Amino acid sequence: MNNVRPHLKMLTDEQVQEIHKSVLTLLATTGVRVDSPSALAMLEKRVGSSMVEGRSVRIPAEVVEWAIRSAPKQIQIYDRRGNPKFTIGGVEDRTRFGIGVTALFYQDPVTDTPELFQRRHMQDMVRLGNKLPNYDVVSTIGIARDVDENLTDVYGSLEHFANGIKPMVLLCSDEHKFDDVLKMFELLHGKDLGEKPFIIPYFNPVSPLVMNEGTVDKMKIAIERGLPVIISNYSLSGATTPITSAGTIAVLLAELLAGLVIGQLYKEGAPMLLGMIPVYLDMKTLQNFYDPQSVLVNLACAEMMAHYGVPHCGTSGSGTGWGMDLLAAETFWMNTLTFSLTKGGLAPFVGDTLNSKAVSPLTFIYCNEIIEQSLRLSNGFQLDEAHLGLAEIQKVGPGKSYVSAPSTLKNYKSGYYVSPIFPRWSMEKWLSAGQPHVQKKLSEYAVEYMKDMPIPEDHAELIAKGEEFIREFGK
Predict the structure, then answer these.
(1) Considering 359, 394, 411, which residue would you say is the last residue of a domain?
(2) CA 262, CA 216: separation in Å to the nearest integer?
(3) 56 is a domain residue
(4) Which of 395, 411, 427 is the last residue of a domain?
(5) How buried is residue 117: exposed, middle or buried, by Cβ count under 10 Å (0-12/13-18/19+)?
(6) Per-residue pLDDT tens digits for 376-411
(7) How crowded is residue 143: how many other Cβ atoms within 10 Å of its Cβ?
(8) Closest among 198, 197, 196, 216 to 206, alpha carbons compared
(9) What residues contact 11, with CB distance under 8 A and at least 6 apart?
(10) Burial 253-276 (b: 16+ CB within 10 A, else e)
(11) Residue 132 resides in a domain
(12) Which long-range contacts (CB under 8 A, 24 or more apart) does 411-416 make?
């Protein structure tokens, strides 16, 4: 089988080595700040007391190289039922996508009006993410704001767990609740969470060059349970990282490799994904935004992770726009398409908008289309004798039609993309329909689509057991 596939490559081998050398120098000289006392004690013992001064830790190149070699090159991810779903890392890896993440508001699909994110929204959006076929994972979608503030992570995680079976990327806004959430999952799941991992906890260092206590200690809790973890840094170029793309890559990559070292020292061979969310800070409005350079940094990171053989978790291009509009679409398309053409990994946070404060089912549904078309492009086409069909071309001959040709009759339903949302109307058809705006069609489709979303058969049982856990937990 001869598959013709497009591929996007940025860095030469020499540039990869130059970046890596610069990052090793940065870690060995400037180092990182580690805020966790237990992690500092471990680093002092394992890396050497001469490398630790107060909370500042310098990491020798040989320790970084050891951590890179120790980390698994591939990670098998399962669903909640224990079925293998996909592998992250390796030569055949492709980009995987997920919806989320941690929004404070829900944007109504009919009016576009934001309202406080509630527990019922988590329920509905988890079910929506499980129904939409092009999402491989469902990330923590929002922070429930209609429950006790001290229990938002626990209630939200219960809805996350009980309303779907796809793999979960887990975020906890309250670092002190993370262990409690995992204990609840262990009660609900009834088996070792690390045996067939379907939960992937997500952690952020603090740029520039800070391994904050919450991140490091939660990472230890997850690794001890055998769970794969994501270390991903969120930067504001020109504020928390240098404004140049090269400088941003150096700082963020140093943070990621420092996280890798700590994770591997906790447990050699711990499965870890590394990646960046590189955005800019508008100095006039103080709003963060994606720039084409953000996309380039994401792609460069993917290539560096491929060089290291460490699974990659990149950006999803979310947060721009005022809902599912032109502003959002341009960033989603740019990020999704380019990411699909590179070394692969996980893009877990598709669908948030309004500077990442809100989520909208319209965005989730439209991005499902973007992902499908991007994957159709990145999958390329077959170039072999059967697909060339020279015998058929010779039989049809000059000046005739292929409408009734055997290859057309066999393949016309799958030969090109057909949107379930937007019909291919002529101008006359559009005029006769009242000149509808595409967003109206999207809204109508979303409302209808959401009337029938899958509910796991064990949903009621899990909710009951989880709420009992929360009642006992709150005493």
Answers:
(1) 411
(2) 8
(3) no
(4) 411
(5) buried
(6) 999 999 999 989 999 999 999 999 999 999 999 998
(7) 23
(8) 216
(9) 19, 300, 303, 304
(10) bbbbbbbbbbbbbbeeebbbbbbb
(11) yes
(12) none
- The verdict on residue 222 lying in a domain is yes
Residue 295 and residue 213 share a domain: yes
* Percent of the chain topping pLDDT 90: 91
Q: Is residue 192 part of a domain?
A: yes
| Structural domain count of the chain | 2
Q: What is the pLDDT of residue 208?
A: 97
Please tell me the predicted confidence (pLDDT) of residue 343: 83
**Pair 294, 339 in one domain:** yes
Give tens-digit pLDDT for 190-233. 879 999 999 999 999 999 999 999 999 999 999 999 999 999 99
DSSP notation for 131-167: HSTT-SEEE--B---SS-GGGHHHHHHHHHHHT--S-
Rounded Cα distance between 356 and 362, Å, is: 15
* Confidence at residue 415, expressed as pLDDT on a 0 to 100 scale: 83
Q: Is 204 exposed, middle or buried (0-12, 13-18, 19+ CB in 10 A)?
A: middle
Give per-residue pLDDT as tens, 39-63: 999 999 999 988 999 999 999 999 9
Dist CA 422 CA 418 (whole Å): 9
Kindly give the residue spans of alpha helices, DSSP state H, lying in 47-141.
Answer: 61-70, 119-131
Strand partners, 106: 115, 359
Q: What range does the domain containing 394 cover?
A: 384-411
Say if residue 374 is in the same domain as residue 389.
no
Kindly report the CATH number assigned to the domain that includes residue 207: 3.20.20.480
In the predicted structure, residue 3 carries a pLDDT above the cut 80? yes
Q: Are residues 360 and 394 in the same domain?
A: no
Alpha carbons 170 and 167: distance in angstroms, whole number:
10
Please name the amino acid found at residue 266: Y
Q: Side chain identity at 386, as an amino acid letter?
A: A
